[in-house]
What we know:
The chain is mainly β. It has a single domain, classed as Porin (Beta Barrel). The chain contains one helix and twelve strands. A hairpin with a 2-residue loop joins strand 7 and strand 8. It starts with a helix and ends with a strand.
Amino acid sequence: MKTSNLLVIAVVLSALMIANTSYGQVAAPVPPPPPKWEKSAALGLTLTEGNSDTLLVTANVLAARKGERNEISLGADGTYGENNDVKNNETLHGFVQYNRLFTDRFYGYARLDGLHDAIADVEYRFTFSPGVGYYFIKNERTRLSAEAGPGYIYEKQGDDERGYFIARLAEKFDHKFNDKTRIWQSLEFLPEIEDFDNYIVNAEVGVETQLMTKLALRSSLQDTYDNEPAPGRKKNDIKLVTALVWRF
Length: 248
């Protein structure tokens, strides 16, 4: 056999081997993009002049990121109000919560809250709570979850400064009717372990409607019930807040 024929056969066999090898290979899967932060800032203002001069300013900043196994949410909000030059509202609140999903629905969490409420005579109140949670409903439009765990509160309320252990029971609900309108609701019960007459209940219900691509209108009703408030203070504080929301 001629040398040229041998060369042609070798080239054909090499091409067949390369093609067969390439056909058996599977392309490496493309990793999903990292989860994005969802961020928003809200501002509300109520101002009256005349028979009564009132001022109420509310502000809120929220951020959340939900991944396949890790979820984190954090935020801060504050209010300031006056009625005829007399301060009747001054609060500052912040929180951070981290969830680690063990399954698609079951997770462990750690949460830290901080609160200052001058009118309720709460100089500061820090609440730390680890625990477990479960999503009873979890899809693109609706989420319903419950959380439970121990906790610890360290606070200065009135002239009393102390720390004590608590239990934490919480429930959260969020539903999107469509791409423009959603509602939410939350409830949190914090009783002292050694004295169940000393407890705090935090509740909220709200609705948000998108006005433009990044602008929305938000209204929420917030209720804080402290069964053992500072001396001379009422147990219940209710706020109705309406604000414009900017998403970025």
